[in-house]
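tool=predict chain=A
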Amino acid sequence: MARNWEDVRKQLGPEREARIKARVRDEIGRLSLESASLNQLREARSLTQTSLAELLGIPQGGVSRLERRTDMYVSTLRNYIRAMGGELKITAVFPNGAVEISQFQDVEQQKNA
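tool=predict ok
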């Protein structure tokens, strides 16, 4: 007989649930994601839309809209990734190799100068 996960979870206790969450985070950390949506990245970093919104200084709905967009400014994406603790790198991939595009880092450095 199938059981509801919420019912099973209620029986675990806080210590066991914390161990399970830590194990899941470790497993996610070991994964080499080849592609992921923004919300998948956020969830893999154990962040909620609300907590990320606080880091970005925007309303939670703004994070939701960001995660559903298919087109955005590079600076917006950079800020989103940085708020999660990452660094955005843009790479062009060709049949004979890959090249990191430095133009966007140059713009950021000029802003800070």
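The radius of gyration is 18 Å. The beta strands are 91-94, 97-100.
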